């Protein structure tokens, strides 16, 4: 049976670039067709009928026509816009970071519903005003899980022994998570991991984000887990996210502003 030329889908814009004088190419994440590139013809013209519909930080409803290079967006409407997250710079910067991770994690036209659902919920959490850093950590853990590469935080990655509270731990992303003290330090990137940080990593594995949002934690523990999960995601995706530089700049700027 031939594949229909015209199809409909929900989509979230992950990235975009300008093409020619008036067109724009979008990288889209869809629940059933995976990641794909589509062209919005004439969208940069003032009277474009697509207008502001094909923007980031919104769930879109699109009608597309299959084409040889890029599929063509023939109709677009906004199913749900996360407007509030755009009003806070740190939330916006975090949203770009999450989109970049999703784009790098998903292959073209590969099944991506778990990642789509994860990104959609993360945007809603940012829109609701949840702490961006905790949303980012929750997303990083969830993305690794969706890719079948969940970090090991319960048992040693080498000997599969249950980790005990009274021992020392090391975080080794390239091995998949936590290493107990009975093994020699590998030559790969490794860092000590405190018991408090290990407990927070376990919370990200076991608890829903609403429960995590209510935790009161020392800043040092959150910073340790942030470094650990960023390193893990970098190992999973095999590169550093470009958007992290902007996100860290936004956070540093906020920290310098007097309370």
Task: Explain how this protein is built.
- There is one protein chain.
- The protein is α+β, with helices and mostly antiparallel strands and 259 residues long.
- The protein has two domains: 6-81, OB fold (Dihydrolipoamide Acetyltransferase, E2P) (Beta Barrel), CATH 2.40.50.140; 84-256, Recombination protein O, C-terminal domain (de novo design (two linked rop proteins), Up-down Bundle).
- The chain contains seven helices and eight strands.
- It has helices at 89-105, 113-127, 132-146, 195-206, 209-213, 219-237, 243-256, and strands at 6-19, 23-30, 34-40, 58-65, 71-81, 169-172, 177-180, 191-193.
- A five-stranded mixed beta barrel has the order 1-2-3-5-4. A three-stranded antiparallel beta sheet has the order 7-6-8.
- Strand 6 and strand 7 (177-180) form a beta hairpin.
- Helix 1 (89-105) packs antiparallel against helix 7 (243-256) and helix 2 (113-127) runs antiparallel to helix 3.
- The longest helix is centred in the last third of the chain and has 19 residues, at 219-237.
- The protein is elongated.
- The model has no long low-confidence stretch (mean pLDDT 92).
């Amino acid at each position: 049976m031939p594949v229909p030329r015209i199809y409909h889908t929900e989509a979230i814009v992950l990235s975009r670039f300008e093409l020619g004088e008036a067109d724009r190419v979008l990288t889209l994440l869809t629940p059933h067709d995976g990641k794909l590139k589509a062209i919005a013809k004439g969208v940069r013209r003032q009277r474009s009928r697509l207008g502001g519909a094909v923007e980031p930080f919104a769930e879109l409803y699109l009608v597309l026509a299959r084409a040889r290079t890029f599929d063509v967006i023939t109709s677009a409407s906004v199913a749900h816009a996360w407007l509030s997250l755009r009003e806070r710079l740190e939330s916006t910067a975090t949203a770009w970071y999450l989109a970049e991770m999703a784009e790098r994690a998903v292959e073209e036209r590969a099944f991506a519903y778990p990642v789509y659902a994860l990104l959609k919920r993360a945007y809603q959490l940012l829109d609701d005003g949840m702490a961006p850093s905790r949303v980012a950590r929750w997303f990083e853990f969830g993305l690794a899980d969706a890719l079948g590469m969940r970090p090991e935080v319960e048992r040693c990655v080498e000997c599969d022994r249950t980790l005990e509270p009274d021992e020392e731990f090391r975080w080794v992303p390239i091995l998949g998570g936590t290493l107990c003290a009975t093994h020699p330090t590998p030559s790969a990137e490794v860092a000590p991991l405190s018991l408090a940080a290990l407990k927070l990593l376990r919370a990200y594995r076991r608890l829903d984000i609403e429960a995590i949002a209510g935790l009161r934690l020392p800043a040092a523990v959150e910073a340790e887990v942030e470094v650990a999960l960023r390193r893990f995601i970098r190992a999973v995706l095999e590169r550093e996210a470009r958007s992290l530089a902007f996100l860290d700049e936004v956070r540093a700027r906020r920290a310098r502003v007097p309370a």
